[in-house]
Specification:
mainly alpha; 4 domains; two-stranded antiparallel sheet; 6 strands; rod-shaped; GCP_C_sf; GCP
Length: about 850
């Protein structure tokens, strides 16, 4: 196969030499004989040239040669031919494999040289002398032989010349390259080296000789008066964009540093400027290298480059590719962060870090680690030390001066505008609570045990308490540190509240005394303060009531409670008007000191006071009914009087007593069931739930939420909620009516006792004492309301009138009570709380009211 290829090559060479000799005007006009000496010498010379290792002194770059050809066609005004050549070159380079040309650049180089030879033939060179040397003999074709050049040849019409190979320094290629250089100089008023240096100046924010900053155009431009090709002008403008971006970034840094330490810059802004300055330092290093390379001259196409340390506009565009990406990103960040600071600035920069380009991602990660360093230091200091190192209000935790009792609720809060996007809301809440717990322990509890807990948390999270251990990109480490610190510090805080300050014991004391859960104490207190509270409110002494409170404590099992708890229990008289009684203004209060006042705030104690007033009124009504029962005693009070009274009076007495007894039973049933519902279904159930939630609480927020739920449950179930105001008013009207009934019952049995006393006295006196009593009664007028001074007939008449009047009053009370009770019960089914519906079930267990009142 190789022999066949070699034979084909040999035949092609012979055919080529034969055609060249036949077309040479200086040769013999007769046909060339293949066996002639002329043909053999020419063939030998041609083979010698083709088999030599002589190569052109340029780099074999097909793209560069094609670009040179297109540029020459364009400069000659042959734009259409340049486009045609571009299309043909594209097809030529795309064809590979069998039938394709491997050494494409050599073909292009040959075409280029042929075109230059044809151009030279039209001017001063005669290509007809290029091939006659093929006819020289061996002696003429020695080492010093060359292709003779006859510039004075008469026949200049032969245009089929080929490559001129010579060792003559005045080679045609050198002449062509010099012509190309001259042509470029004619088209360019400014050389490329000057433009490169001007671009480098512009990239440092400095005006060059030709490239200067234009405020109107807001960028670096090349004056229109400078004569350069349009492509070069566009490239200069694109490269100068880096200088415009540099001015923006540099201006922001200078402006921020001039204003520091202003509040609108802050430590995060300063860190951002420092990070930008570091990136500019790397940028300066690159410019220094490029300036050194720009000092080397740009070699011509024909020159063999001894080194690559020269700088052209094209090379500069390659060098600027990566800095341009970084500088554009920095300029975007500068525009975005100009009005931001603190966590908001860090969050805005973080949004640009979500990028798929590894270069951009790494650049943003490096930048954000510097920017977020102050922010993460604030987090570390807050979580482990409770210190809010935020001079310029950049942190997402904001503190404000408040009293100790308001420290937990109002002392610190989250600033949503300063929360960076790489910290979630839940993590921010845990960070806030952890630092708040440390400050609560330090300020309110005067405890220092949190320091050991913080050290243990840092060790458990794999970090230390030193500065700089946390940074951007270490979100998992941050979450681990916050979780460990929160778990240990919150546990320590609850331990201090439960053990040192006895939170559970104080909650139980409030339940027993303010919510009247200590039955014997409440009973003793009502018994001894009842007479005093029946007086007008403005005549009651608070000191006397405080003494009676001490007596009730000593007389009940409350005396065995902790003295610290008993010392906190005090009497409080609410504001009162002119017509108020002591019952209306009497209340108890519990002194919750720091840190318990964080839970038992003024608003919470006001709600406890409201519950106490309701329960106190309920207990007062119950106490009044019990007192009425003690005065009734129907089995022994009137047994002797009934036998000797007239039938009509006796019937009226029995009817009145029965009405009173039935009405008392009805009221007692209502009050007893309501009392049971409040004490067991409301207070005890709520307390049981509260105790369970206290045991599982993990932090103070959980404890506050459990207590709030406990108090809210009592208020809602006790008819004191906002949605039960109408029901509560109806209930208080019922309470007032029951107290009125007590006064009517007292009047009835006082009258009966007086009647019994008068009849007993009449039957026990002797005749002498009766005459003496009559004489005394006639001498002076007896009291008009006294039955003893009346005679038997008048006594019987007055007794009948009294029983009749009392019966009518009791009927009126019973009717009003039934109406009010029916209205109260009719409102219970429409209440939204399920326990209030259960109250209706208890009150109407036998369906007595449902049958009597069709509206229920």
């Amino acid at each position: 196969m190789e022999e066949e290829d070699q034979q084909k090559v040999s035949d092609l060479i012979k055919e080529l030499v034969l055609r060249l000799l036949s077309q040479n005007p200086t040769s013999n006009p007769h046909p060339i004989d293949r066996n002639s000496s002329e043909f053999r010498n020419s063939l030998r010379y041609a083979v010698r040239i083709l088999s030599s290792r002589m190569t052109p002194s340029i780099t074999p770059d097909a793209s560069a040669i094609a670009e040179t050809i297109k540029r020459r066609l364009a400069t000659q005004g042959k734009s259409s031919q340049a486009l045609t050549f571009a299309e043909l070159y594209t097809k030529f380079t795309s064809k590979t494999g069998p039938g394709g040309v491997n050494n494409k650049w050599a073909v292009l180089y040959l075409l280029k040289i042929l075109a230059e030879d044809r151009k030279a033939a039209k001017t001063q060179f005669d290509s007809s002398v290029l091939l006659p040397n093929l006819a020289l003999n061996d002696a003429q074709t020695g080492i010093n032989s060359r292709v003779s050049r006859s510039l004075g040849s008469k026949d200049k019409g032969w245009k089929n010349g080929v490559l001129l190979v010579s060792k003559d320094p005045e080679n045609r290629r050198e002449i062509a390259f010099r012509e190309f250089v001259n042509l470029v100089k004619e088209e360019n008023e400014v050389c490329e080296e000057v433009l490169v240096r001007d671009v480098l100046y512009a990239c440092q924010g400095i005006d060059g000789k030709y490239v200067k900053f234009d405020k109107n155009a807001d960028g670096y431009i090349l004056s229109d008066l400078v004569k350069i090709p349009r492509a070069t002008r566009i490239m200069v403008r694109k490269l100068s964009e880096l200088g415009w971006l540099f001015r923006k970034v540099k201006g922001y840094i200078s402006e921020s540093m001039d204003r520091f330490p202003a509040e609108d810059v802050g430590t995060v802004g300063q860190a951002f400027c420092a990070a930008l300055q570091d990136e500019l330092s790397e940028y300066y290093k690159l410019l220094a290298v490029l300036e050194a390379q720009s000092m080397n001259p740009i070699p011509l196409v024909s020159e063999k480059v001894s080194s690559d340390n020269y700088l052209s506009l094209r090379r500069l565009s390659v060098w600027f590719a990566e800095p341009m990406v970084k500088m554009r990103l920095m300029a975007v960040l500068v525009d975005k962060c100009r009005v931001l600071r603190g966590g908001a600035m860090a969050g805005a920069i973080h949004l640009h870090a979500q990028h798929g380009d590894p270069l951009v991602h790494e650049f943003m990660r490096r930048l954000l680690r510097r920017v977020c360093s102050p922010l993460f230091e604030m987090v570390r200091s807050w979580v482990l030390e409770g210190e809010l190192e935020d001079i310029f209000a950049e942190f997402f935790v904001v503190g404000q001066p408040v009293k100790a009792e308001s420290l937990w609720r109002d002392g610190y809060r989250l600033h949503a505008g300063m929360l960076p996007s790489f910290i979630s809301q839940s993590l921010a809440q845990r960070i806030l609570r952890t630092g708040k717990s440390i400050n609560f322990l330090r300020v309110c509890c005067e405890d220092r045990g949190w320091a050991d807990a913080a050290t243990e948390a840092a060790a458990a999270a794999g970090t230390t308490t030193r500065r700089g251990d946390l940074g951007y990109g270490e979100t998992n480490a941050l979450e681990s540190l916050v979780d460990e610190a929160a778990k240990r510090i919150d546990k320590h805080l609850l331990g201090v509240m439960y053990k040192q300050y006895k939170f559970k014991e104080h909650c139980l004391a409030i339940k027993r005394y303010l919510l009247l859960g200590q039955g014997d104490f409440v009973q003793y207190l009502m018994d001894i303060v009842g007479p005093e509270l029946s007086e007008p409110a403005n005549t009651i002494s608070t000191f006397k009531l405080a003494g009676l409170l001490e007596t009730a404590i000593r007389s009940s099992n409350a005396q065995y409670d902790d003295h610290d708890i008993l010392d906190r229990l005090r009497v409080k008289m609410m504001p009162h008007g002119t017509g108020d009684r002591g019952w209306d203004v009497f209340s108890l209060e519990y002194d919750a000191r720091v840190p318990l006042d964080t839970v038992f705030t003024e608003s919470v104690m006001a709600r406890y006071l409201r519950i106490f007033n309701f329960l106190w009124k309920l207990r007062r009504v119950e106490h009044a009914l019990i007192g009425a029962w003690k005065t009734m005693k129907p089995n022994c009070i009137t047994s002797h009087s009934f036998t000797k009274l007239q039938g009509a009076v006796k019937l009226q007495l029995l009817s009145t007593l029965r009405r009173c007894q039935v009405l008392w039973d009805d009221m007692n049933h209502f009050v007893t069931n309501l009392q049971y519902y409040i004490m067991f279904e409301v207070l005890e159930v709520s307390w049981s739930n509260f105790s369970s939630e206290m045991d599982v609480a993990k932090d103070l927020d959980d404890l506050l939420a459990a207590h709030e739920k406990y108090l809210h449950s009592i208020v809602e179930k006790s008819l004191l909620g906002e949605r039960s105001q109408t029901l509560c008013k109806s209930l208080f009207v019922l309470f007032d009516l029951i107290l009125r009934f007590r006064s009517h019952a007292d009047r009835l049995y006082e009258g009966i006792q007086e009647l019994q006393a008068s009849r007993t006295m009449e039957s026990s006196l002797s005749s002498r004492e009766k005459s003496k009593l009559l004489r005394l009664s006639s001498d002076k007028a007896s009291e008009p309301g006294s039955w003893i001074s009346d005679g038997r007939k008048a006594l019987t008449q007055r007794a009948g009138d009294f029983f009749r009047s009392m019966g009518q009053e009791l009927d009126a009370v019973a009717k009003e009570y039934s109406s009010l009770l029916e209205g109260f019960l009719s409102q219970l089914p429409v209440q939204q709380h399920v326990d209030l519906k259960f109250l209706l079930f208890r009150l109407d267990f036998t369906e007595f009211y449902s049958r009597s009142g069709p509206g229920l």
